[in-house]
Design goal:
Layout lengths: L6 H8 L16 E5 L2 E4 L4 E4 L2 H4 L8 H11 L13 H13 L4 E7 L2 H18 L7 E5 L8 H5 L18 E3 L7 H11 L5 E6 L3 E2 L5 E2 L2 H13 L3 E5 L23 E4 L11 E6 H5 L20 H15 L1 H21 L5 E7 L2 E6 L11 H11 L2 E2 L6 E4 L7 H19 L14
Length: 443
Amino acid sequence: MPHSTSLAQRDHAVLWHPYTQMQTAPLPIPIVRGEGSWLIAEDGTRYLDAIASWWVNLHGHSHPAIAARVSEQLRTLEHVLFAGFTHPAAVELAEQLLALLPANQARVFYSDNGSTAVEVALKMVLQYFHNQGQPERRTFICFQNSYHGDTFGAMAVSARGAFTEPFWPLLFDVVFLDVPVPGQEAVTLAQLDALLLRPDVAGFIFEPLVLGTAGMVMYEPGILSEMLRRCHQAGVLGIADEVMTGFGRTGPLFASELLTEQPDIMCFSKGLTGGTLAMGLTTCAAPIYEAFLSHDKMRALFHGHSYTANPVACAAALASLELTRAEECTQQRQRIEAAHAAFRQEVEGQPGIRAVRHRGTILAVEYDPGEGTSYFSRLRDAFYQLAIDSHVVLRPLGNVVYLLPPYCTSNAELELLYAVLRRMRELVLNFAPASTLPEYLHD
């Protein structure tokens, strides 16, 4: 039976959306179909998905190879509890991933999203030291402006900011380092050396090479390798949060491939299933796993989820991984990387642009509105609306606008995205500084 109201109106009557002030937000755009790099709305409007739907989609929407693998799995086994049981897809996925990850990674622990993958990693570190008779080691080192998720442990090791302020009293204390962006490496190393003298430090968690929600802030593999080396000398464990950077986003399959010193624990989600189903996993080195082995059941890792290692999600991940490892995907990523590099060369240093950052298929343009960089920049909504009016899906981080497209995005489609970024520069150049705006228009 047809409905008398639109899908967006029905949504507004019953749903609560993430990161959204529901009282003032416009009605959501109702998407009914996906095709390649495009999302098709209820009214037939096509939107180019420039950010892979929050960084999850690798190979395009409704990919037939992933759909076929999921359909086959649904007709075989949809789910089985993962305590005391196992199934082929979970074993196959773990085997294939461990063969691709740094050689020190030895075990896979399944969960269901990026935040829970991080929660598992934090609990592994804390209980590792507890089981080793060092319960005083419970402090984590993190980067300023980092983001690791929205559950409580993940929030605790993320930046303290407006999004987490109501929960500050409930977050455990961590210590923050400056990000070692080019030119600041010595400062960060000095901060790290001072912290590693403390007897309570347990782990160092980081987004390798790219801090996503900080504005795609980038730093180099060499300095991260040196930081990990110093952590290991002090007995501190390293956690690589590859939730965003994994599965080819930074060039190689994993950002950690570019390091000479490897993390002890790694976290994955987002592109893990090619954007098809929710899934997370955490891998660890053998000594960490072995610290939980005992005749004492209380030394086990007591963590799990109802949908741990869901067979359908594992099947989607296996299909996506097969596509990612194919030569065609490597060529797609290299093509996008080259196109981003050419655009960066074109616009870097132009008026209205403060910086352009690029690694792999990730491109970020930091516009200069004559005020500081901020997630709550007055430009954000203007940028967003300009993109939507151009039939492009972008989610600006304040005055930083980034592209992180599906790998199937064509050169012609990339040019549509670059054209929007050029128009954003024109918007910035004509944007009134805050000092000239009426008071009621200030943030």
